[in-house]
Specification:
By secondary structure, the protein is α/β, with parallel strands linked by helices. 27% of the residues lie in helices and 17% in strands. A five-stranded mixed β-sheet has the order 1-3-5-4-2. A hairpin with a 4-residue loop joins strand 4 and strand 5. Helix 1 packs parallel to helix 3. The chain is globular, with a radius of gyration of 15 Å.
Length: 166
């Protein structure tokens, strides 16, 4: 099940040199995910090369489109999407934008998990901290218009209607 609305931002949050911005991408993305999960007492995620490959294929597809859209062909994987100005965001920035959604999270079951009444305001966050998720794999692709996209895939997917994330 897809993990909420696609996140699209166009301005830079932090400057990073192109040489180091994506260095150790896997380790850094995993560390940010697991840092948030640890703060909640949740088990750590493990990187999945298979999920990374799936994410890479979808990121390449999204790179050719003007807007983000979830992959409706997946049914057991979860998915978070991000788009922003190429070269302006670190892997940490990308994931932190999803974590920032916790400001609107109220702890209730999906889809009533947002203080705003709009599940899309928390869907990335709830997928990231979904208690039964064990694996993650992510990929970045250069996109049209000077942007880049990141796709993260999760197994098992979260955001199950009627279930609390943790």
């Amino acid at each position: 099940m897809a993990a909420g609305a696609a996140c699209s931002l166009g301005s830079a949050l932090s400057a990073a040199s192109p040489d180091t911005r994506l260095a150790d991408f896997k380790g850094r993305v995993l560390a940010v995910h697991n840092g948030e999960r640890a703060s909640l007492g949740l088990h750590q995620l493990i990187w999945s090369d298979a999920l990374e490959a799936n994410a890479s294929k979808w990121a390449a597809h999204l790179a050719m489109l003007p807007d983000l859209e979830h992959d409706n062909s997946i049914d057991v994987e979860g998915e978070n999407l991000w788009r922003g100005t190429k070269g302006s965001y670190t892997p940490e920035d990308m994931v932190e934008l999803w974590i920032d959604e916790k400001k609107a999270f109220n702890g209730h079951a999906v889809p009533d998990a947002s203080i705003t009444g709009d599940f899309e305001d928390v869907g990335h966050y709830t997928q990231l901290v979904w208690s039964t998720t064990r694996l993650v794999g992510c990929a970045v692709a250069d996109a049209t218009g000077g942007d880049e996209v990141m796709v993260c895939r999760y197994m098992e997917g979260g955001n199950v209607v009627g279930v609390k994330p943790f």
